[in-house]
């Protein structure tokens, strides 16, 4: 699993990632999470966390698009590639802009790609007033559309985002809506933590519909790592 966020920190996407991982490990999968060099370590059987290198001038990363994410995502991609070269995986599960990495990595490994879409990235560029550049916004739109088309399965977290994803041509049989909601405690190794999460019982059912590009059903093996950033890993 590839998570371009600080894991774990008590904020939106990390909560979702935690509960995705918990659902997957409960099904018997092992998850290797490739994530940023920031955040608390989570205690969960079946989860291993691999953190990317920390740029010497960064101590954290804010919510939303930022210049700091450029070196962080570049180093994240290197860590994901290194994991892909050192282990066998069944699938790649990517979050947010890591979907761009996941598309290429899954194609290279010839494994299914699950794209967890927590927001529309080109919309984020304008909502957070990061840029007004039509070229940059258009480039992210092109990358996002291709990630949606190439993914074997897509998860969205709200009806508006679902409608947007389906409007790009994503077929309904490759999509699942899992809305964020209050769930259980997040247990850290060093200290007790916050609550929240996602309704990830649906993820158990969605596993049965996770299809390969060739039309077959992906076979996940209990206690065998799932795709390079997907054993599944949390961030």
Write a concise keyword list for the protein shown above.
235 residues; alpha/beta; Rossmann fold; four-stranded parallel β-sheet; three-stranded parallel β-sheet; globular; disordered C terminus
Could you characterize the architecture of this molecule?
The chain is an alpha/beta fold and 235 residues long. It has a single domain (2-207), classed as Glycogen Phosphorylase B (Rossmann fold, 3-Layer(aba) Sandwich). It is built from 7 helices and 9 strands. The strands form 3 sheets. It has a 4-stranded parallel sheet with strand order 4-5-6-7, with helices on both faces. Helix 1 links the parallel strand 1 and strand 2 (31-35). Helix 4 (121-127) runs antiparallel to helix 5. The chain starts with a strand and ends in a 28-residue tail after the last helix. Residues 191-201 and 211-235 have low confidence and may be disordered.
Secondary-structure blueprint of this entry?
Layout: E1 2-3, H1 12-26, E2 31-35, E3 47-51, H2 69-86, E4 92-95, H3 98-109, E5 113-117, H4 121-127, H5 134-150, E6 153-156, H6 159-167, E7 175-177, E8 185-187, E9 192-195, H7 201-207
Parallel strand pairs: 1-2, 2-3, 4-5, 5-6, 6-7
Antiparallel strand pairs: 8-9
Helix pairs in contact: 2-3, 3-5, 4-5
């Amino acid at each position: 699993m590839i998570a371009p966020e600080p894991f774990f920190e008590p904020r939106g996407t990390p909560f979702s990632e935690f509960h995705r991982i918990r659902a997957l490990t409960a099904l018997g999968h092992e998850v290797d999470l490739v994530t940023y060099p920031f955040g608390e370590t989570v205690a969960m059987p079946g989860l291993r966390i691999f953190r990317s290198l920390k740029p010497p001038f960064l101590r954290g990363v804010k919510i939303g698009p930022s210049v700091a994410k450029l070196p962080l995502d570049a180093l994240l991609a290197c860590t994901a590639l290194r994991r892909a070269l050192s282990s066998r995986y069944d699938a790649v599960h990517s979050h947010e802009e890591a979907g761009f990495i996941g598309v290429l990595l899954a194609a290279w490994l010839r494994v299914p790609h699950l794209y967890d879409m927590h927001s529309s990235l080109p919309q984020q560029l304008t909502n957070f007033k990061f840029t007004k550049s039509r070229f940059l916004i258009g480039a992210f739109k092109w990358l996002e559309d291709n990630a949606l088309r190439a993914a074997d399965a897509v998860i969205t977290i709200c009806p508006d985002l679902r409608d947007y994803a389906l409007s790009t041509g994503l077929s309904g049989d490759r999509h699942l809506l899992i809305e964020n909601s209050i769930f259980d405690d997040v247990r850290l190794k060093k200290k007790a933590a916050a609550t929240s999460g996602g309704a990830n019982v649906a993820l158990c059912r969605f596993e049965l519909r996770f299809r390969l590009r060739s039309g077959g059903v992906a076979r996940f093996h209990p206690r065998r790592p799932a795709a390079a950033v997907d054993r599944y890993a949390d961030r």
